[in-house]
Amino acid sequence: MQQAYETYQSVLKRIRVLIDRLETVVMDNLDGGGKQQVHNETLAEDRTLILYVMLIAQVATLGILFFWAMGALLQLTQNGGHINSLQLDTIGPGFLHFGLGRILYFSYPFVAFGASAIGWFLFWHRWHRPAVLFCGFPVVGTVVFYLALVLFR
User: Which of 102, 126, 122 minimizes the C-alpha distance to 114?
Assistant: First the structure.
């Protein structure tokens, strides 16, 4: 158990070093590569602002989940609605009478809860940029999924 904990801590340290290096490169590019001092109190370190951004992303994720549930009921009962006209079963190879589109559609709650849990875990460890990235992923992923459904038909 102790070895697993030490491995976990070493992985966390490596990730933190990589994020710090990436932040240094980005800040140097923003400063034009000059010798200006980067202030310690940047927007990315403002925990209150990051908390508000994450809460907004969570509300958006839960709003999409609400409408996803209505679409899932229509999809499972074949009871009309625009979701049935998308014919998600015909996208990709069939797997137990589920096409790839339908599998991706029904994976949204798992993606939403998983990304949210990872985002809040990262926020708790004070890794703000990846935390916002993970909390916003379900919203961006939903937009990309529906754009792909419309554009590639």
Answer: 122
- Which residue matches tokens 């010798």? 35
Phi-psi region of 87 (alpha: psi -120 to 50; beta: other; left: phi over 0): left
Of the pLDDT bands very low, low, confident and very high (cuts 50, 70, 90), residue 93 is low
Q: What is the 3-state secondary structure (H, E, C) of the chain?
A: CHHHHHHHHHHHHHHHHHHHHHHHHHHHHHCCCCCCCCCCCCHHHCHHHHHHHHHHHHHHHHHHHHHHHHHHHHHHHCCCCHHHHCCHHHCCCCECCECHHHHHHHCHHHHHHHHHHHHHHHHHCCCHHHHHHHHHHHHHHHHHHHHHHHHCC
In this prediction the pTM is 0.64
- Two tokens, residue 34: 């000059």
CB 74 within 8 Å of CB 84? yes
